[in-house]
Amino acid sequence: MVGGRGARIVRVVLATSFVIMTISGSSSAKIRQPILAGAWYPRDAADLRGDIERYLAAGGKPDPKVRAVIVPHAGYQFSGPTAGRGFATVRGRTFDRVILLGPSHTLGLSGVALPDEDAWRTPLGDQPVDRAAIGTLLERKGFAVLPRAHAQEHCLEIELPFLQVALEPGFRILPMVVGQLDDDLRAEVAAGVRALLDATTLVVVSSDFTHFGPNYGYVPFRDSIPDKIRELDEGAIRAIHRLDPEEFLDYVDDTGATICGMQPIGVLLTLFAESGGKVETLGYARSGDLLDDFSNSVSYAAVVLKPRIAWTAAPPTPAEQEESEKEQAAPPPEPTPRK
Known about the structure:
Layout: H1 17-24, E1 31-32, H2 45-57, E2 68-71, H3 76-87, E3 97-103, E4 112-114, E5 119-122, E6 125-128, H4 131-137, E7 143-145, H5 147-151, H6 160-166, E8 172-178, H7 183-194, E9 201-206, E10 211-212, H8 225-241, H9 245-255, H10 262-275, E11 277-286, H11 287-291, E12 297-307, H12 318-329
Parallel strand pairs: 1-5, 2-9, 3-8, 3-9, 4-7
Antiparallel strand pairs: 2-12, 4-8, 5-6, 10-12, 11-12
């Protein structure tokens, strides 16, 4: 392990008709083509929509209080059911913007990489990118346009078809690949994201949890593997429930838990540490259970977050902050991950 949290590299490897017409009708529009269709999820639009509808139907009811979700990013045959439990909470909701935060699996970088496309394509259609928001972020420290970070990255594209089925059309996406962050840079990035938050913005963090086995260079134990993997995951989820970025990041550093999205989750928890909120774990699964083989296994969780203080670009008032601190002082409920 490279020393220091900031240097640590985790081992893992429909818009409205007007927007659609604008994108498709512009000869200069730049479209990111899907790289996962036909492999990680179906290439046929009807098959893809049908699979996602089934995953969503197996989840719970929509929850108007949910403003952020943590969902996995493996192939749909592995993590689709778990992701469906998270996205089901925002089904039928209307958002203007969806911020997508995910880790880099293909390129080492520091800070946040933004895309240069006008839209991202899936078999379900083209989704416009929030170019105005990208312009705003580029005025801040820690953000840069880096197309290479997005070209072969799977963790954000894998969430887009779920959003296209679950949400009402008309939203723009803001994909961000999050690299290594020290404490100061994490605060800068969180401040940039916070300035974009409002009642019509949804935040999606893409992350798997423990990657166990020689394929991932992580074999900290050789007996009682399923139980110990669950213990690792539950420890991380408890820290997320406490909305404590320092506790979560320290836990990952101390245990070596291979949570690929530790940095995006750290940014999300930094946002919520100020506003306070409620956290629920709605789904948990492992590829080891699905394959009946724990020689290599990846864990998946669906976690939703509900801010206690309404999201705005302005900081909370002293009264709001005091009320949030009182509520945060109460012990958090124990997470109950389940398949």
